[in-house]
Amino acid sequence: MGDSLLLKCVDNPERRRVYTIDFESSEFTALYAVTGQPIFATVSISYAPGEVCVEQMSLKRYLGSFRNEKVFYEGVVNKIVDDFVAACDPLSLDVTGDFAVRGGIETRVSVAYEREDEV
């Protein structure tokens, strides 16, 4: 599900400072795992970079790689967090999937990550 190898990182040009970078993609699409019907979402990503930052176009390609994958909402948001952490090792990360209404129910899944202090 999703091609994590598409995520590329570049050196953080401002390592001396803690700051956040926010991305929002309103073009996220995948297939619902139960019915195979298309699902649509806005995916919001906010993170504090460590040594590296995610390269923006690689993030776009990565999110696009879910297009023909069968997913559950909860699983796909957690997968994005896991892949982002593995690729970029951020200080902190918040990912929210705001999924289009299905059956009259709006669904929003949010996952937060904080890097543990190294001892």
* SSE string, helices as H and strands as E: EEEEHEHEE
CA-based shape: elongated
Q: Report the CATH architecture.
A: 2-Layer Sandwich
The radius of gyration computed from the alpha-carbon positions, rounded to a whole number of angstroms, is 15 Å
Overall helicity:
10-25%
CATH topology: the name is: GTP Cyclohydrolase I, domain 2
Question: Any overview of this molecule?
Answer:
The structure is a single chain. Strand 2 and strand 3 form a beta hairpin. This protein has one domain (4-12, 19-114): GTP cyclohydrolase I, C-terminal domain/NADPH-dependent 7-cyano-7-deazaguanine reductase, N-terminal domain (GTP Cyclohydrolase I, domain 2). It has a 5-stranded mixed sheet. The chain has a two-stranded antiparallel ribbon with strand order 1-4. Helix content is 21%, strand content 44%. The chain has helices spanning 56-64, 73-88; strands at residues 9-11, 21-32, 38-48, 52-54, 70-71, 92-102, 105-114.
List keywords for this structure.
alpha+beta; 119 residues
Brief summary:
This protein has 119 residues and is an alpha+beta fold.
Helices and strands in order, then pairings?
Elements: E1 9-11, E2 21-32, E3 38-48, E4 52-54, H1 56-64, E5 70-71, H2 73-88, E6 92-102, E7 105-114
Parallel strand pairs: 2-5
Antiparallel strand pairs: 1-4, 2-3, 3-6, 6-7
